[in-house]
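Quick one - first record:
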Amino acid sequence: MELWFSEPHTPDVKLSIRVDKQLYSGESDLQRIDVFESKEFGRILVLDGYIMLTEKDEFIYHEMIVHVPMAVHPKVQKVLVIGAGDGGAVRELAKYPEIEQIDLVEIDKQVIQVSKEYLPKVSCALDDERLYIFYEDGLKFVRSRENEYDLIIVDSTDPFGPGEGLFTKEFYGNCYKALKEDGIMVNQHESPFYEADATACMRAHKRIVESFPVSRVYQAHIPTYPSGHWLFGFASRKYHPVHDLEGEKWLERGIETRYYTPRLHEGAFCLPAYVEKLLRKVEIRG
């Protein structure tokens, strides 16, 4: 008997992956957590029935949410990561010796525990000595911070359930306040392809544009995410993601990546016409 995991993308579309076995299934106070083993995608982390990552394509997401801002900001020393209990974003940040402190805020302790046990390739930097883990609500955590971080990475789940509060105007405004005067915030911005996802994308973009003087959107191709076309938000109090890109300096660091390059960085901000049209609908300034 074959075992398949299926995730609905719309009422009429679903992604199905044949799995060899289920390695873990449990309920935290907030959500259901599952880990599957598959031939094609390796291990798969699923929260409340939705794929958070697979071992085969997680590098795309984590490299793009970390290296894009790191190649723009000239001196990142203190970073706040909200969500990201799987450890993938921390793994990429740990490649930068100049970073002095990483604060990771994860509301669900069990996600970190499961990731450490079942996803060692992703969670391998969760014991980094520069990392401080806070098990609390990211929305509440960031309220009490002011002029503290060079970079904030919002690696949230989708805009419902435990991650819902990380898509509000209040949250983005508090992130602005928590950043230093030249700070950068990046966030996962949903997919523009299916109608419900596009609506969430537009809503988030509108709220970020209202909070930050610089707000741009970039893209990546992530096969196991809905439609495979995924967006990220880049918001800054000072830096432009392309004009202030220091590609040569980033290359001199010698950081090994499988997806990100400075050349791809520039191209990622060149969006398809239908995406530009979606974003323009909610922008109050260019």
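second record:
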Amino acid sequence: MTNLELEAKWKEKFEGLALSDTLKEIGLDTPVMTQRLGADPYAIVYEDRVYLYMTGDLYEYNEDGTVKPNSFSLINKLNVISSDDLVNWTDHGTIYAASKDGAAKWGNNSWAPAVAYKEIDGKTKFFIYFANGGNGIGVLTSDSPVGPFTDPIDRALISRATPNCANVDWLFDPAVLVDDDGSAYIYFGGGVPRGKIANPGTGRIAKLGADMISLDGEPIAFDIPYLFEDSGINKIGDTYYYSYCTNWNVDEEGTKKYGFTNANIAYMTSKNPMGPFTYQGVVLLNPGSYYGCYGNNHHCMFEFNGEWYIAYHTQILEQMLGISGGYRSTSITKITVNEDGTIATVPNVDRHSLVQQKYLNPYERVEAETMATMGGLNTTQADEVSKTYGSGNMAVSDIDTGDWLALYGVDFGEKGATSFTAAVKAEAGTVGAIQIRLDTADGETVGYLEIGEGADGTSYMEYSAELLKKVTGVHNLIFVFYGENYSVDYWKFQ
């Protein structure tokens, strides 16, 4: 079918089509993901991509279908996404971390992941450290940042039986640092014992074994003013930065002495990864100070392309949905590390403050689950490995007429694109189409891809179509979907 025949067949069906609602209008860059919730973010940078790992918050419901407060007790999965430009994010799925169906079958929960990678025996290995509720920390390993992840020790790495850990109120919220010499350290703990608001004494540091799945010595306690939870660790130059969330009982004396208030992200520095650490200042206020929805504060700091950023979670999505239950989603904002090594307090955050780091290349295979924002869609595991372990190759799914996704800053170059191909799995008899628009949700239509011919519901097939016009230059790219009973694995332009 020619491009003109496709236009004649599908144009009327798409004209006036109501697009599915979105929680992130085109142009906004946060939250980074809206197809699922994602809390307690932790970032690594590997091969010029940022990988974000998050607690897989799940909505909990009352018998009448209304959403009830998040108990956190059902969370046993971790979400992972990645980006090389900070605005278009590829969904790598949900890591089956704990419970009888997860990698760590001994654990009930998986909260607050911390991630690191290290070369061991000539091979790069990735490690996720996660909290089994508030009573221990497990470790998972993989040869890839997106899995599959497995449990190498089949038990907790840190538990109440670990020396100097029995009296830690909350044995959770790890952060991990692999130092320049290959030695590694884990920071964890939290909670406020009665009468110890100003110095709870519940923070711990331990050196990890060379294998990254054992401890090299006993954990040590260190002083953290008004600690609540949420360890973070970075090395900038020759200085170690420990960051954390202050507690909800900061008194007038604490504010006067340290400059923070309740549930701020504060930081301390040391010339030694095991401390002692000296208090320095506040990096991030409670997100309620910026967005008006107060809740627990959790963060990580990371460097990308020579700039420093902080990932943090908020309740802005549940606020938009009219829910108030402690359901979190992750955002990112830039931070400033001054020449003297101090970190400036973030003065304000908004939902369109990130600068796209590079344009997206449409002539390479692009995973369809890569998106800046969307309406009505979800993602699903696309092969046997991801179906078994939860993460890996994904596909865009749950498609209905009017659903859509958008990508920012797609560079078609001067030569331009004249055709489009996508890999689609559809049920037999499916009749559907993808409309290609530029720049805005109601922008210029430059092509249609009809799908469904030859589909049998068992495998992904490539469908191709000529564009209505040659597309050149840099544009936002919007795909609008028609029909249902199909999923999309990847796409590319020619």
